[in-house]
Amino acid sequence: MEELEQGLLMQPWAWLQLAENSLLAKAYITKQGYALLVSDLQQVWHEQVDTSVISQRAKELNKRLTAPPAAFLCHLDDLLCPLLKDTACPGKATFSCDRVAEALILRVSQHLIRPLMGMSLALQCQVRDLATLLRMKDLEIQDYQESGATLSR
C-alpha cells in the first residue's frame, strides 16, 4: 500500500468536470490496487484499495462475474487515465457524481499542504533574491551619484 501512496503523491492534479460538479482529482493504479484522491476544494475524498477489496466488491456487485482483480484494475486504468490526462479528449467512459453525507478520513497533507508549503518557500526565496538584487542596484545607483554622474529616470 505504501507504493500506492507514493505513486499517488507523484501524480499531478487534474480538473474533472462531472455534470455540474467541478472537481480536482488524481489517481494511481497498479496491478496491486489503486489510490484515488478527489476534492471540490471544500471537501476531500480519499480511497486506497488493494486486490482483496476489489475482489470482494466485484462479488458483491455481480456474483456471476469472475475476473482477476488485475483485469478490473486494467479496465479502471483504461477508463480513468484518459479522463484525468487529456481533458480535450475525455475518452469513451461517462461518469456521474452524487454527494452523500458520509465520514471522511482526511489524509491530504502530502498532496495539498506540502506542495503549497514548497511553493511558498520557493516564492519566498524569489522575493529574497529580488530584494537582494534591488539593494545591489540601489548601491550601484548610489555609487554613480557619488561619482558625479547624473541619472535620468
From TrEMBL:
<feature type="domain" description="XLF-like N-terminal">
    <location>
        <begin position="12"/>
        <end position="116"/>
    </location>
</feature>
<comment type="similarity">
    <text>Belongs to the XRCC4-XLF family. XLF subfamily.</text>
</comment>
<dbReference type="GO" id="GO:0006303">
    <property type="term" value="P:double-strand break repair via nonhomologous end joining"/>
</dbReference>
<keyword id="KW-0238">DNA-binding</keyword>
<dbReference type="InterPro" id="IPR015381">
    <property type="entry name" value="XLF-like_N"/>
</dbReference>
<keyword id="KW-0234">DNA repair</keyword>
<dbReference type="InterPro" id="IPR038051">
    <property type="entry name" value="XRCC4-like_N_sf"/>
</dbReference>
<dbReference type="GO" id="GO:0045027">
    <property type="term" value="F:DNA end binding"/>
</dbReference>
<keyword id="KW-0539">Nucleus</keyword>
<keyword id="KW-0227">DNA damage</keyword>
<dbReference type="InterPro" id="IPR052287">
    <property type="entry name" value="NHEJ_factor"/>
</dbReference>
<dbReference type="Pfam" id="PF09302">
    <property type="entry name" value="XLF"/>
</dbReference>
<dbReference type="GO" id="GO:0032807">
    <property type="term" value="C:DNA ligase IV complex"/>
</dbReference>
<protein>
    <recommendedName>
        <fullName>Non-homologous end-joining factor 1</fullName>
    </recommendedName>
</protein>
